[in-house]
Amino acid sequence: MTTLAKVLTTIGSQTVLVPVVTVLALVLLWRRRFGLAIALVGAWGGAIALYSLGKYVVGRPRPPADLWLVRVTGTSFPSGHATQSLATLAALAIVVSLWLRKSAWPGVAVAVVLAVGVGWSRVYLGVHWATDVAAGWLLAAGWLAVVIRTYPP
Prior knowledge:
Elements: H1 2-11, H2 14-30, H3 34-58, H4 80-100, H5 105-124, H6 130-150
């Protein structure tokens, strides 16, 4: 289970999401799909800005270090992994579906399952409280709604 949790945590990290967003945004720009590129980068970047602000304002400590199965730094609330994984993966699914003119629901369902896995992994690895993860998901969902409303295709 620890290996699975570490893999899921990595999927929700900037190590994975930055290159994926960068490559897709560049492809969208090359294909002159400027609105979709802006929406994708806005969903990802805005999620990072919002959780960073939340961590700064709240300053909630992480669970005790003797529970950690991975090394982390910083504060706990809201979970950055939960926030950026849901916002970014769902935005990826929506943007790709709009670009290919396909239904967004299968991709969004996969994005949600992965984001739930990322959130679970953060609690399992002992680096977040469940409320940190839930707050991250709520923050991501709210931000994604703003992005979708602001950047219609």
